[in-house]
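Support request, priority: normal
Reporter: lab tech (M.K.)
Component: structure prediction queue

Hi team, I submitted a job for MFS transporter from Nonomuraea roseola yesterday, and the status page still shows it as pending. I've pasted the exact input below so you can check whether something in the sequence is tripping the parser. The sequence length should be 429 residues. Please let me know if I need to resubmit or if it's stuck on your end.
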Amino acid sequence: MKPFYVRELTVYPVGTRRIRLLAVAVLASLVANFETTLATILPLLREDLDMSLEVYGLIAALSVLVGGLSAGFGGILSDRWGRVTILVPTLTVTAACNFLLATVDTVGGLFFVRCLMLFIEGAAITITASLVRDFSPRVGRAQAFGFWTWGPVGASFLASAIASLTLPMFGNAWQSQAIIMGVVSLVLCAVIIWQIAEPSAALRAQVMSAEVAVATEGKIDPGKVRELLRHPHLWAHVWGNTGWQVLYWTFAIFGQTILVDSFAMSAAQANGVVAFGIVLNAVAVIVVGRVSDRLQLRKPFTLAGTVLTIATLGVFVALIGSGASGPAVVAVYAALFLVLGVAYVPWMANFSEDAEDVEPRLQGAALGIWGMVVRIMIVVLLLVSPQVVAAGGWSAWLLVGLAGQVVFLVSMLAFRGRWRTARPASATV
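Reply from support: The job had stalled in the queue. We restarted it manually and it finished. Here are the results:
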C-alpha cells in the first residue's frame, strides 16, 4: 500500500502536465534548500550562543557529512520505494525541525538539530534531482537541470529577502527567522503534496529521448547498485565532478570573504559582486542548457566551460595582491561564475544519460552516490581550507580549486557521448 500522498503515473506525462510536474520538482528543490538555510541568521546565532567561527565550522563539517550519508542512501531507497514516498516526509519533517531550531540555547543543541536537519535534507536534494530526470526526456534534460540548479539560488534569495523585511519587526531575534522559515516551508510543502506525482517504476525504467505518452504498467526489479559500481566511466563522472566542485563550493561558502580579504572590499560591496555573479550563472545554465539540448551535445560545452574556468581562475588568482581596480575584479569574478555555468549543466545531463544507458532503474542511486561523495568533499574543504589559507593565503587555496578543475578536465576522457552533431543519414536511391 502506498501512502495517501503518492500518485503514480502509468502513462508518461506530456505537454503542460509534464511541465507542471517538472516545476513541482524544481519547487521541491527550492524548499529542500530553503528550510536548512542558516547564513541569514548565523551572525546573530553565533553572538547569542557565544560560538566561535572555528566551532561553527566543525559543526558545519560534521552535519554536512551526515547529510552526505543520507544523500547516498536516499537515492538508493528512492529507486526501490519511489521518489515521492520518501521526498514528502523528508521535506515536511525538515520544515518542522525549524521550530526545534528556534528553541536552541546551547552549542550542543545546535549541533544536534543541524545534524538531524541535514540528515533528512540530504535525501531530499538527491530525490528532487531524480524527479527532474524522470520528467525530462533527453531532448530537454540539460535545460531542466538548469532550472533545478535554481533551487539553492532561489532559496538563498528567499531567505535573505524574508530576513531583511522581518528581522527589524522582531527586534533582530534570530529565533523569528527559524519560525518563519518553518511556516513558509510547511505552506510550500502543502502545495507540493497537492500537486506532486511520479512515474511508476516501470516508467522510470524507460529511456525517454523525446516527449511521448508511453504507457507502462507492472512491477519491475529495481536493480542492484553494484551494477553501477563496476563501470569506470561513471566513477570518472563522480570523482571528476567532485574535483570541479571544490572551486564551486569555495566560492559558495567563502566568496564574500575572499573578496573582502584579498581586495579590501566592504561586506556590502562583496555581497553585491557575489549577487551579480550568481545572476549571471543562473542565466548561463538556462541558455547553455537550451543550446546543449538543441544540438544534443554535452561534452563540447563541458570542455569549453572547464577550459574557460581554468583560464579565468588563473587571471583571478593573478589579481590577488596586484592592487587591481574594483571594476577589473568585478568583471573577472562575474566571468568566472558565467563560465562555471557553461560547464555544469551539460555535465549533469551527460552524467544522467551515461548512468541511464548503464541502468535506467538506478538513476536515483547514481545521483545519490554523486551527492554523497560531493558532501564528503565539502567536509574536507571546511576542515582543510582554513589551514591552507592561514599558511599561504587565498591564492594557495584557489590553486587547489584550479587543480580540481584540471582533474575534471582529464576525467572527461572517460565520459560517453558525442563530440559533434550526428550527420543526417544519406538517402538511399
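The beta strands are 8-9, 198-199. Residues 363-411 form the longest helix (49 residues). Let us know if anything else looks off. Ticket resolved.
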